[in-house]
Amino acid sequence: MTMVSCWSEMRNILFKVTYDAAKAALPAILVCLLPVCAGAQSYDLLLKGGHVIDPKNGIDQSMDLGIKGKTIARVARDIPPGEALKVIDVSGLYVVPGLIDPHAHVFFGSDPEKGFNGGASSVSPDAFSFRSGITTIVDAGDAGWRNFPDFRKQVIEQSDTRVLAFINIFGHGLTSGSGIYKMDDIDIDSTLSMVRRYPDDIVGVRIGHFLGKSWVPFEAALKSAQQSNRPLLLECHTPELSLDELLERMRPGDIFTHAFGAVNDRLSILDEEDKIQSYVLEAREQGIVFDVGHGGGSFHYSLAVPASEQGLFPDTFGTDLHRYSMNGGMKDMLNIMSTYLTLGQRLKEVIAGGSWKAAKAIQRSDLGHLDEGGVADIAVLKVEKGNFGYVDSGGNRIDGNKKLNAELTIREGEIVWDQNGLSAKRWQENQ
Ligand SMILES: [Zn+2]
Questions:
Q1: What CA–CA distance (Å, rounded) separates 160 from 265?
Q2: Tens-place pLDDT, residues 358-370
């Protein structure tokens, strides 16, 4: 063998050995290189330096929060900025679970013959949700068993907001005017079959706006709620059915909305000396959920202030959002939560009412918290300091010095509201 052929042979052997070793090691090399190619960051988005309030997990302190895809990947004291593709400085702000409005009217549509159930009395959820830190809105019975599929197609499927619903015990849903509700529009089997058809959308059964002495609609709604293992939502305007009897028949977990409203002909939650009625305290003790349901005419300081002074704060802050409440005293859910900050409820409790307690009320334990691995529905709030006025349904004002504002809202990991461009690049830096 000449020197040339020997060297050539050795080179071939060396090449083969190197090639085989590299081939064998290829999977390991790829695993090491992949994060470099894809970006080594563990998080798509990092909220850095904020004060996290997560009532479900008992967190009320400075924490960072990392998001990967649609989920919350990590909540920890100090997450290095280099681990995220994008970092947002949220120092001085509160990072809380995406808020849940358990009482709104969002079956909007263009039919002039209809009001709340497909007409102009209801409003688009996306137009009001994210700017108030809300990521989940629950419709309060605009649709019944006859038109729920229309509601789903027209609103739920068209909205970026997570829209859930109480199904109305009346088949046509929330029609305009109380006088047109008909007993033959009630069908428990059809209501239950609609719940079975849309179990992820329908969170409970609603009764309300029925004038009359009959217990039939209430009992039908309660039975439907029982048989579907979901809460009953009791809205106002059942004036001839006394409040004490209603609360007595309701089950723990059922929801009593317009709790602080001086609704005509309905018994008050207070007695003549402004003391909380004993049956109200009992109902509360049993676990009936007290929702604000502010609306256009259902929240009054004559009840809310004495109740607050006696320690009766709402569990949840349902807005009763619709065309006739949005520009009145109600405004939005953060305005109601700010009202309760002014009435003495602690921030932590107010946030709980807007998130975890609301999630529990609609039996959706997957929402309303900041669990690692949970859906990245998040609100970043600012407590503004200054002079603010809060107005009830009677046109009365109380003055406060704090107001909650939504700086940033994140829905399934996507920034869907950014009040002051915290996530945007400065224009000057792009020149
Ligand atoms: Zn309502």
A1: 39
A2: 999 999 999 999 9
Q: Is 265 annotated as a binding residue?
A: no
CA–centroid distance, 141 to ligand 1, in Å, is 8
**What are the structure tokens assigned to 86, written together?**
């994008």
What structural domains and CATH numbers belong to the chain? 97-373+383-403 (3.20.20.140)
**Residue 227 to residues 35, 184, 193, 263, 343, Cα–Cα distance (Å):** 51, 20, 11, 30, 38
CA of 262 to the centre of ligand 1 (A): 15
Going from the Cα of 196 to the center of ligand 1, the distance in angstroms, rounded, reads: 24
209 alpha carbon – ligand 1 mean position (Å): 9
pLDDT in tens, 122-152: 999 999 999 999 999 999 999 999 999 999 9
Of 233, 261, 263, 207, nearest in space to 362 by CA: 233
Annotated binding-site residue? 142: no
The DSSP letter of residue 77 is S
Q: How far is CA 405 from CA 359, 361, 413, in A?
A: 21, 24, 20
